[in-house]
Amino acid sequence: MLCPDSVGALLVRFPELVAQIKTWARSPNRWVRRASLVSFIRLARKGDYLDAIYEISASLFADSDDLIQKANGWLLREAGKADRQRLEKFLLQHGPEIPRTTLRYAIERFDEKKRESILLAKRKN
């Protein structure tokens, strides 16, 4: 995969590029917005750049494009592999803002009780 492998490797070597990739989230082009998320997939698994990951993720909650919502959930799920408590806290904090598709992807690795409690908390807010 181009973005997770190539762009992710560039981010490891040149961390200053993170600021540029954050701007991609505001692009009118859906594929550029999606790239702003998936470029961090492999890094998220290792717990790298989590601050930037959560910032980009939150900035795209209002995006109605299904492919963006799925990529966002995928990125959050991968970030959760490195720090599950941080992901859970982030999801609970932003519950009402998170599109259902994004949330479903993000929590699919949680056990059933945890998924239900997060979905219930989203509805209550």
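That was protein one. Protein two is written in the same sequence-then-structure order:
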Amino acid sequence: MLVLAFDTATDVATIAVVRLPERECLGERSSRAVRILEDADGLLVEAGLDREALEGMVVGTGPGSYTGLRVGLVTARALGFALEIPVAGVSTLDALAEGAPGAAAVIDGRRGELFALGSDGPLVVRAEQLPVKPGSVYVGDGAVNYREHFEKAGGLVPPDDDPRHIPWARHHAALAENFGPPELAEPIYLRLPDAERALSA
């Protein structure tokens, strides 16, 4: 099954073309700007394929940037409908953890908060309140941006440019299971977006 996988939940957008179940990555890109369609076309051309060859799509569902998540989900749904292929959603935290076995995945939630994986699933917590296990490795932009917090408590954070800090799209593809109608792929929101919070205030 040939799938296009991408994630736009963090500051680094990633996209890949992957063949499943072999998990063969035919091409992958990352950028600071969200260029899903441009990068998708580029990857397919490099692999000698066209859009009609795609049999499924995998999209990162967060948690992460509200705007980034909306861009990713809307694009996945639009392409899924246009190409008439099923879509699967995969947590950005799960994909980040998949790329760094044994490490804890942490995404910067802004506002002094972090998104992390708890015993009951993804959670949002104030950075200073996130428990740190001495000797454990922490990856993701949350770990990089709050390096002092983790290292002061005995946690280990790889260098800023370590690839384990990026939620690579090939890991989303590897974790994809429940492919279905595009509209069923839902983002993971752990709090209200800023606009709604301002209105309620």
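The helical segments are 36-46, 66-83, 92-98, 141-145, 147-152, 169-175, 194-200. Keep this in mind for the problem set.
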